[in-house]
Amino acid sequence: MTATPPDLALPIVDSALAARLRERLAEVEAALEQHVVSEAPFVTEAAQHLLQAGGKRFRPLLVLLAAETGDPSSPDLVTAACVVELTHLASLYHDDVMDEAELRRGAASANARWDNLVAILTGDWLFGKSSELTADLGADAVRIQAQTFNRLVEGQILETLGPRDGDPLEHYLRVVAGKTGSLIATSALYGARFAGASEEVVEALTAYGEKVGVAFQLSDDILDVMSESDESGKTPGTDLREGVATLPVLLARRSGGPEDDRLKELLAGDLSDDARHAETLALLRAHPAIGEARDYVIRLAREAQDLLGVLPEGPARQALHDFAEVVATRTA
Fold this sequence. Notes:
By secondary structure, the chain is mainly alpha-helical. The protein has one domain: Orthogonal Bundle (Farnesyl Diphosphate Synthase). 70% of the residues lie in helices and 1% in strands. The chain contains 15 helices and 2 strands. The chain has helices spanning 15-35, 41-51, 58-66, 76-99, 110-113, 116-136, 139-161, 168-194, 199-226, 238-241, 247-254, 261-267, 274-285, 288-306, 315-329, and strands at residues 103-104, 107-108. A two-stranded antiparallel ribbon has the order 1-2. A hairpin with a 2-residue loop joins strand 1 and strand 2 (107-108). The longest helix has 28 residues, at 199-226. Pfam families: polyprenyl_synt. It is an enzyme of class 2 (transferase). This is Heptaprenyl diphosphate synthase. Its cofactor is Mg(2+).
């Protein structure tokens, strides 16, 4: 099938930049379709499943945006964009198995369509393809990819183990930095480095990507509580029902007023019951923790934007500034 890139995930004021990004994203999309083809038709079908389900392609877009700080025509950039998206897709297959998810991007998850074994092995295959492509980018990229993969897996392990005796909020933020922040940081790093940007710009954009990545996940936490529809492909309150303590929940648990007793009682119990789940969701939506969570995400986005000061004024810097804004305030 012909590759159809998603619409740009943020408004680009500069028409020339927008056109260039759409053109390069189309190249990335076409390359991704080629990279998920196996000699075994079933492997191809399983690997294409989530790729063709869509997605905003935030990570490839960030690679291409960061590349605007140097030479955005470098052929390595399409490869780098494919590396980060294939790594992300692979992690989704594994996440859905661990979360026992039935939906992903509005479609049946691979584990629901087939089984856990197929989903795990497909994720492994995609990780392998990502590593194969990384080797084409050189030894430095292989090292960066290995470090990123280690952080991804460590974040998943930490999430599985729980905070133990540590601070639950601090633990959760460490998990998010590993599972989400690390790959988005690498996306910005790859874009700047393979476009030949200065080391100062590479370092600034890597730090920017880490903060934007954490903000992206935390805004998703808020959406899980506040969304009224299934537009994002995720049923509202899914994390609550599964007992996942996300940012709003952790902040609500820290509150000290007696008016919070009922919410804390519900959060400590089983929310698989529809009535208890609905009550918890309603109480959490009205709780100040939602405002605190939003403030934290916006603060992270502002810190990310401040890091852009080393970039020259122009369309690329403005687009990166807007990228952080969209991530912090998105509604889907």
